[in-house]
Design a protein that fits this description.
Length: about 280
Amino acid sequence: MVQLKRRLTREAAYKALHGSAQRHAREIAADQPGSKEKLFAPKLLPAYKAACGRKRDFIRETEEAERCLVRLAEALHVIMNDKEFLSLLMSEGFATIPNCLVQRLHDDAPLETATAKHAGMLPAGSSAGGQPVSGICPDVLAFLQDCFVKVKIFGLLRHVLPARQMEIARLMVGMERVTFTYTKILVAFTPRPLLAEGFDPTTIANVSEDQLGAMTPELGRLSSEFLSAVERRGSVSLKLLAAGRYLDRLMDNSKVVRYLAHNFPDQFEEFHSLSTPTPIR
């Protein structure tokens, strides 16, 4: 007699997986001391500088893409009141302008204002709540559930408060550096108010109080700007892609090019310099 395999309902399967995940979370977070090995200057300083450099590159690329959108919108704004040019766009099939440019044509807010607005936003998870699982914020466990996380990383995260745990998790994923060394740097250079009671960062990093005082604010500022850029990056990339394709089509049209070169030479030069923008990674 053939024995039929029992099939779980979708709800039952979800409950089983959820319960397994909770048990796993408790196991990986419990009684993990992290590492007793300190990060010494020959390894710590290059890793710190590399992390800061990657953040600066990411921020710069995001802001450059935003500036490209602003420049393109400003150049279009000058010529959009020209009735002959609008008629030319209609006749050549360019009447439909990407929404991202239409919005910017009606948005007079400078780039710095928009960037400052994002920078001032509280990062997602900054108010991380819930009952900690062996010292680890549940939101952090959920956020990292699809990542390969070494067990000892959770031991390090227990040395900082839940809000900082979530920030570190977002930084690791955003930087694509879910590593023990990077976690140790972020924990070591955590502002004092966000450290767990009784934890001394010099126990995991061979740095002086003066070095901590100088390096912690720099890393904190860069981290805040980086997370803000991460939040904007996807939207900016899509907008730049749409705007770039529209601009390329304009610059491939001989009638449009001749009209712009003859009547709006400054805007034509701007379009030419912005044509085929390099997509951000």
